[in-house]
């Protein structure tokens, strides 16, 4: 990690709530705030030939340092030799791993059912002469196309379909073939799943979503355990300049203190909504890894600590889906997920996901679960008229 901090996993044995509340805090200084304010600086004093931890604002910032320590303590508690780097967005973090590790002639394995920007990434990789292979998340299908690959990219649960694959199995197979493994951990969060403990080399996420949880900042991060690989990621960040602003980094760190509280509430709400949708008189094809009837539940229960705040289901037509969204009162019709205010969208509106026109991705917020269930069931009923 970038460093140790007071009251964190370095002490060992603390609960996740304690870890989240105290993650990344510096040693206390008399009469100073427990979490120092954001540092706005493009450059730092460097008298003579002296060097130090901070030289130029594109390379390092004290506010990033605290946030990077906090994220590292959640993604890899108690692990030495783990480094965390923060980025301007989740896509900046994803791109940093792919484009720093791959060269012309390399092969990479991506999920065919992953985040909707991955097809754009694929086109760019192929333009650079990199072979891109794809396979679905479910059934560990990526195993079949691993031979000769330099990097395996896993997204589990997948977005938006919520399929789950066996990270440990895939990582062992990839490493046996000499490939690095990166896991997009956005949907799970570090409190739901810790990819490095399951054998991955990188855990990557959009901090825009549930990690920060308020829908007001863009942020991404990469956590890695391979020093040489992370040095390449850091170099990529320096070259491209995909850095977060200090205010965004400070807001993110501030928000992490409530992560465990938000995750617990949102996961409980998501399960309640998923169960209500499952029991609806129409077959909605509900997907949520926390449902015992879900195809992904068995493997999810083995590697996930919590199952996330996103539920997906499919209405018969595009028109029905639009009517359902219009009828909701407690759920905002918006893209993104993970915020304290529930959101939902007809995912097919964007054209980047292989989903039916009536497919709904619902992100459960921190509202009272019974109120959300009532709102969703009422909207289903009204939209059927």
TrEMBL record:
Cross-referenced Gene3D superfamilies: Aspartate Aminotransferase, domain 1, Type I PLP-dependent aspartate aminotransferase-like (Major domain)
UniProtKB keywords: Lyase, Pyridoxal phosphate
Entry cofactors: pyridoxal 5'-phosphate
Domain of life (superkingdom): Bacteria
Lyase found in the keyword field: yes
GO molecular function, one term: pyridoxal phosphate binding
Residue positions where N6-(pyridoxal phosphate)lysine is found in the record: 209
GO cellular component, one term: cytoplasm
InterPro entries hit by this protein: Cys/Met-Metab_PyrdxlP-dep_enz, Cys_met_metab_PP, PyrdxlP-dep_Trfase, PyrdxlP-dep_Trfase_major, PyrdxlP-dep_Trfase_small
Family the entry assigns: Belongs to the trans-sulfuration enzymes family.
Record's protein name: Putative cystathionine gamma-lyase
